[in-house]
Structure formats: structure tokens, C-alpha cells
Amino acid sequence: MTALKLAAYAIDCTDPRRLAEFYGRLLGWEIDEPESEDHWVELADPSGGAPLAFQLAPDHRPSSWPSPEVPQMAHLDVRVRTLDEGHERALAAGAVQLPQPADRLDADFRVYADPEGHPFCMCAAQ
């Protein structure tokens, strides 16, 4: 059987361009303008992998993580050399740090929210 290739990872949001610009700052990726429109904006992975896409969802509600009221559904893990580096980069891009799970205070990751309230983790290299 032929292996399939991931075409994109799409994230629902109320402002696709704003969220793409946030993740572009965070990851150092560029918006792929020929693949983007008002309701769909793609960030090109410079290593050639699947793009991150941001899709207009006018009724998007931010996750209430860690409360399960509005689940996160999925999240991104971003690998960084150190947690301090990840923290500074996340805040500089415009993220907000979220509470660390009580049972993972000494873990090798920290949890943040993007401008639309999607949780993501900055994970220290191992």
C-alpha cells in the first residue's frame, strides 16, 4: 500500500491571517501567499513538511484548558533547546502562559495559549 502524505494541519480560528502571523513569529516560518486567501492562510514549513493552515471558523471558541468545559481537541508541541528559550520566544510572539499541570511542575514542557486561545506546548530538547 502506498503511504499517504499529510497535506496540511489546519487550525480553526476567527482571524486566519492574525493567527498565521503569530505562528510565523513563533516558528520563523513565512506565509505562503499563493496558497492563502481570506478564509485560509498557510505557513510554509521551510524544511518541506506539511504546512500549518489557519481556517476561518467564525464561531470558534477558545479552549478553557485546563478546564474541560471547552476542550482543546488538539495542540501543537514545539521543540526548543531550553524551557527558558521557549518561554521567551512564546511571549515575544504574543502567547500567554497557561497554568502548568499540578502533577507536571517539573516536566520538560510549558503550556501557552496562542491569540485565539489554542493551547500549545514549548518542549525542551532531550
From TrEMBL:
Keywords: Lyase. It comes from the Bacteria. One of its GO terms (molecular function) is lyase activity. InterPro entries: Glyas_Bleomycin-R_OHBP_Dase, Glyoxalase_6, VOC_core. Residues 5-125 form the VOC domain. PANTHER family: CONSERVED PROTEIN (PTHR35908:SF1), HYPOTHETICAL FUSION PROTEIN (PTHR35908). This is Putative enzyme related to lactoylglutathione lyase. The lineage of its organism: Bacteria, Bacillati, Actinomycetota, Actinomycetes, Pseudonocardiales.
